[in-house]
Amino acid sequence: MDARFPWFILLAPLVSAILIQLFTRKSRSVSATLSVGSVAFTLIASLFVFAGPDGSSEIPWLDFRPAFYVPIGVTVDALSKVMLLVVTGVGTLVHIYSLVYMREDESEARFFGNLSLFMFSMLGIVLANNFAMMFIFWELVGVSSYLLIGHWFTKDSAAKAANKAFLANRIGDFGFMIGILMVWTAFGTVVFKDMEAVRDQLSLPATFSTIAVLCIFCGAIGKSAQLPLHVWLPDAMEGPTPVSALIHAATMVAAGVYMLARVSFLIELSATAQLVIAWVGILTAVLAALMATQQDDIKRILAYSTLSQLGYMISAIGLAAPGAAMFHLFTHAFFKALLFLGAGAIIHALHHEQDIWKMGGLSKKMKLTFLAFTAGYLALIGAPFLSGFFSKDAILLAAWQQNKLIFLLALLTAFLTAFYMTRLFVVTFLGQTRSDAAGHAHDGPAAMTGPLVILAVLSVIAGYGFIANPALGHELAHSLHAAHEKGGAMLVMALATGAFILGTGSGFVLYKGQAKDPILIPLFKNKFYFDELYAALIAGTQDLLATISRYFDQWFIDGLLVRGLSGATWATGFVLRFLQVGNLQAYSFLFGLGVVATIYLLVFR
Amino acid sequence: MTLTLNHYLFVSGLLFAIGFAGVMLRRNIIIIFMCLELMLNAANLSLVAFSRFNLVNGLPNYNAQVLVFFIITVAAAEVAVGLAIIVALYRARQTTHVEDINSLKF
Which 3 state secondary structure label does DSSP give A1? Predict the structure, then answer.
């Protein structure tokens, strides 16, 4: 392998993005070809890099040694290799799929330009060998995510969703930046390798490392949409479905998990922070799963499902099992991208109908999509011997070995996942067709079904050792095996299977042949009123601030300063003008008095 | 009876008092103006009287008399300006009554 390959991977999408933005925006086909070509190139290059040895190379950027030194560098190790495969693999399939999905869109060129920009930014995060560079690309994915969510910016809801995503991410990124600066101060370097090397020689105060780790975790909270900043992800479904599949299911939202796995040596410094991370993750998983059970929009259900699965991964990070987290990230990327692309195929076939209650009976109309979707569905809910089963099992096992309460919540999430996905599956594909559009639906062209089939195959087999072990690399795979041997593996597997059977069974029983939702839980349907709470909170704070500033303005600035000054001047003038009687004699009398007084003072004193 | 300094000063004071009273009490601006002249001339009278009665080596103190000439000159100039103002005022207001000239009054 050439040492320059990682650089090519990084730069190819950037070149494509620049060319599209500058030159080929007029031509849709050229832009699409450029973008797909660049991502296909990165996939091939990634495969070469994957087969090649580990290594890293860097060029100095801000070189003020020994004061500080920030390079632009790429790292190739087990972690970035698996992530490269996921990003470029799913990315390629989504690009190809987009060729069909976006064909009727007027600004297809802009779409592909932004998609290339995203690929560049995401690969930058994956390859970054230091915190500063990662942060830059971290912000860049935020920007490209903003651009892509707001692709249909003439739609009010899309524009608002883009803003919401950007703002929520900014809040998280602010904490992330503070965390990076804290770590930078303590370690004196931002390069991950050097940080790891000096970690053991430093003895940081426990509070300091806890705060630093939690600040860094803030970045993951924003990007991976954990509580309490999860609100942006469901709204981000306003973007085109390929974007949802690529950015908001498979890659960008997983960047938080990847980043935490990358700096797991830092997280180990603070047990408190680990506990917080584990709890935030598992609470997100449970709450998001509960919200998913009552949604009607097919993409939103999948979005909440993504939240929930991300919660799993974050929780695994907190449980000091980055291997399990990365394993789940790896499998989840495939089956969640598959589910989103499948949902996209349905939405496309039904002319942008997203309500699952207006679908139904699609298994006969869209056979290929149905089969692929089924594979993704089974993988997600952890049906035995599919990829999700193994990766979820790894997380459950980690939870079982360390924290029984978290394990119970994780098991509950597994049950809920099976339940709401069965609901989605049964309502969408089985039973009667419930709308005209659903009656006329049919499979898309090969560019649409092709990626679905490939992802379906991957979703089935990605969990097996012959795929997962080389993909995850020796170290992570080894940690998974070690966890397996610590005991409880069989019990956990049995319990997980039980949760799967229970969830699927109850889902089938409840929703089979239903034309509308037999259960109605407003609390879940309204997403625990998070949006309303934030709206009230923000509105309340703003109102309070506005009231205070209004009073300040009215009484202090206007009242005291402006009116006070003018009033004092006016009052002085008012008093003084009584002296101006306008009578000549009065003036001369006063003048005379003045003369007399002057003479008196001069002569007699 | 011989005239002493006090007699002159008395007349001078009387003239000044009359002038002052006129300035204070009369409403016609021309009369006020004339009373003003009266007060100036009262001052002139006392100056000349002081000069005449304050002999140095048998000669009066001429400083005071020179001052009187100055006052007469200034008074002439003042009259010229003052009368001009009064004429202009009369043209503008058709009155020489001070109580009517009060636009600067609050």
Answer: coil
Domains: count for chain B: 1
3-state secondary structure of B50: helix
Q: Is residue B53 part of a domain?
A: yes
- How many other C-beta atoms are found inside a 10 Å radius of the C-beta of residue A581? 15
Distance (Å, whole) CA A424 – CA A360: 10
Enclosing domain of residue B91: 5-100
Phi, psi torsion values for A418, nearest 5 degrees: -60, -40
- Residue B79 is assigned to a structural domain of this protein: yes
Give the pLDDT mean for A124-145.
Answer: 91
pLDDT > 90? residue A102? no
Is the pLDDT at A2 greater than 70? The verdict is: no
> Is B24 within the bounds of a domain?
yes
Mean pLDDT for the stretch of residues A352-356: 84
Shortest distance between the Cα of B93 and any Cα of chain A, in A, equals 16
What is the domain-level CATH number for residue B17?
A: 1.10.287.3510
- pTM equals 0.77
User: How many Cα neighbours within 13 Å face the side chain of A118?
Assistant: 33
ipTM: 0.71
B103 touches chain A (CB under 8 A): yes
Q: Which residues on chain B are in Cβ contact (under 8 Å) with A577?
A: 106
Interface test with chain B among A570, A583, A593, A596, by most B beta carbons within 10 Å:
A583
Whether residue B44 contacts residue B68, with contact meaning beta carbons closer than 8 Å, is answered with: yes
- Output b/e per residue, A412-434; b: 16+ Cβ within 10 A: bbbbbbbbbbbbbbbbbbbbebb
- Tell whether the model's pLDDT for residue A317 goes beyond 80: yes
Under DSSP, the state recorded for A560 is I
Q: Residue A256: name the closest of A243, A265, A247, A269 by CA.
A: A247
B106 occurs within a structural domain = no
**Six-digit token string for A32:** 């699409």
